[in-house]
Design brief:
Blueprint (H helix, E strand, L loop, with lengths): L1 H10 L3 H20 L7 H26 L7 H17 L5 H24 L5 H19 L5 E2 L3 H5 L10 H28 L7 H22 L15 H19 L1 H11 L1 H6 L4 H27 L1 E2 L7 H11 L11 H20 L4 H26 L4
Antiparallel strand pairs: 1-2
Helix pairs in contact: 2-15, 3-10, 3-11, 3-13, 3-14, 3-15, 4-5, 4-6, 4-13, 5-6, 5-13, 8-9, 10-11, 11-13, 14-15
Amino acid sequence: MTSSLSLWRRTGVDLRLLLMGVLLVVMAVVFHVMSGGVFLSPENLYNIAQQTAVVGIVSTVMVLIIVARHIDLSVGSVMGFVGVLVAYLQYTSGWSWPAASLAGLAVALLVSLYQGGLTAVLGVPSFVVTLGGLMSFRGAAFLVADGKTQPVNDEFFQRLGGGYDGGIGTTASWVLAGLVSIVLVARTLQKRRARQRHEMPVEPLWMELMLTAVPVVIVFGFAAVMNSYQIASKTEPQGMPIPVLIWAAVAVTLSFIVHRTRFGRYVFAMGGNPDAAALVGIPVKRVTLMLFALLAVLVTIAAIVSIARLNAGTNSLGTGMELYVIAAAVIGGTALAGGSGSILGSVLGALIMQSLDSGMLLLDVPIGKRMVIIGQVLIVAVVFDVLYRKRFGETS
């Protein structure tokens, strides 16, 4: 067992993420068989991909919030508030979508500074602050448009949510898949040369290329499936949906922040030991405010994608989303005690959550049973996290 774990660490493969990937594949195959071959159809996978994007966008930053030993229960309500405001400014006030979106971002930043300030400066627990925000901003979403649905009509804006014209087409999808694959291979070779230059041990080249081939195959497989889905009234397939590309861009950006910036290191240091982080000079209050501001940016992006997909802003937008976002982060391996988590884990967690929900919908599972199952899945994920850390924590 020890030698096997050592091999996994040398290759850089996260055993937890590997198990999650296997779980996702098994779940997809089971639902595909039980649904009579519907679950893995291009149409259903296209819908799952774009439906997961909104939760996935917010869950990437929720990972950092939880890592820093905070929580935000108000993300769904704030997203609803911002989404209705952006739609209201476009439909009722006649603003252009960029201006309305910037106004929504400004409001989201004010909300984040308010809640983050109470947490960082006054020391009020984020759980309490955002629990109040969950109720308050849901009410604010209703007050913005007096509970009336606000449709959005701009064609370009609607494309941001996927839907009828929300794909980039087959040619662009293949080109993008090729570019991503080139970047993955180049990154592997660059890391290998760097290790050799510093006289660090490296694995055989064939092993590293095989490990790189896995994400390359996934990228091309995803492009192939998206290029296989064609709406009946259109002459060309959809290609990769724009919401998924936005989600991917957010995930890559957050991964860069986590691994390559001082801010990312500060967040994990604060989560590991807040008192020690303050003693070594980390500006804990400022980093906390920046973290909540980053959350505001991504909540605004999620709100824009959501109302663009629905073609309207409603006061019920984002209801219950905070539970899915937190569940995606936790299922993805983020420790509720803080200090550890990964962006890729949140991506897999969001896909598992949405696949589970979509699969149960295809099987006509009543909503009550779906809620029970999803809640228990979250508990199982936490239990697994506790057992995993007890078993491998000392040697990880």
